[in-house]
């Protein structure tokens, strides 16, 4: 069984109070880093936490600090508002050594007005002698300050207990593993909610032409025939864009959480606007996470067409997403219901491809033919040898090739091998992973 609609805990606070340290300790990993991925530089700010068999998602809003010279209070206000919008519980982190600041008071004013539970976390309390530092923070009017040391791991158990205490009920729903989880992503006002409603055949979600009217991420479970689906509608930004300095960036952050939970990602593109930077970011994240992907070009009814329009549009998408040539493209209109019924058929298809298993004998026959047609790379007289391969996983299909020397591998040959696998086995709609393992003979 898999847990869905996990509670979200947001870590808010000014720079250098130790948000990322706390995040890393609670998730047990050093995950608050920036990674290079095809088509996107991703801020890894989401993590999963398990405590006493309870699960929740934690967001490090430190990863949201813009790189511009905006004043700190302005940055923090944006982070606090995002946390208020998204989270079920908010951790407000302050610096027990540095003391109370004007920026802390500004954020406290925002957080006091929310109906969400807020836990005031006083970080960098490394010894009993520093406990007197807590008293200043009562002035913020956010309950009892909770002393911890993120760096030394002091007080984290008590903090986790308090987080569970503040969690709302009705979350962490369990669904069978055969449920296909589908995230509907895209920039605000691309028609995500309308597509969801048309798929369900009823007005399950409020639809409005004003960008950002979807207030919270809504999970909708339904069955069609023998198939079970969970549709994850990514939340829009509730407030007007003037509240956020970069509304597009925050919208991407929200989509990250949905992509993380999904098996299949629908990347909804507004046909009248074409591919946007946000579409590129979300697609890059989905590809990097090994999700099955489908491009859904919505509002196709508004486009003037001739016999080359669809072909040209497809070519444009392929050029902008060269690393996702495997992803199907569907042209739909949520307003006229045009081809909406094809979306679920394509979801089923790519889900099956994502779970496909290839026998070791079939795989090695294809590997043998590929090597004969195109010799592996060599370096300084030493050639890469592929002894054999086997499939080691699904979602995405993952293959391990046993070789003589990892240093002889090259991304271009990996790409060649991936293309041979696709020619022989399909895998439409899903990325493929190829790992190498040295085996001495």
TrEMBL record:
GTP 1 binds at residues 13-20, 60-64, 123-126. The keyword Metal-binding does not apply. It holds the Pfam family KH_dom-like. GO terms for molecular function: hydrolase activity. It comes from the Bacteria. The keyword Cell inner membrane does not apply. Keywords: GTP-binding, Hydrolase, Nucleotide-binding, Repeat, Ribosome biogenesis. GTP 2 binds at residues 186-193, 233-237, 298-301. Residues 7-171, 180-355 form the EngA-type G domain. InterPro entries: G_ENGA, GTP-bd, GTPase_Der, KH_dom-like, KH_dom-like_a/b, P-loop_NTPase, Small_GTP-bd. GTPase that plays an essential role in the late steps of ribosome biogenesis. Associates with the 50S ribosomal subunit. Belongs to the TRAFAC class TrmE-Era-EngA-EngB-Septin-like GTPase superfamily. EngA (Der) GTPase family. This is GTPase Der. It comes from Peptostreptococcus equinus. The lineage of its organism: Bacteria, Bacillati, Bacillota, Clostridia, Peptostreptococcales.
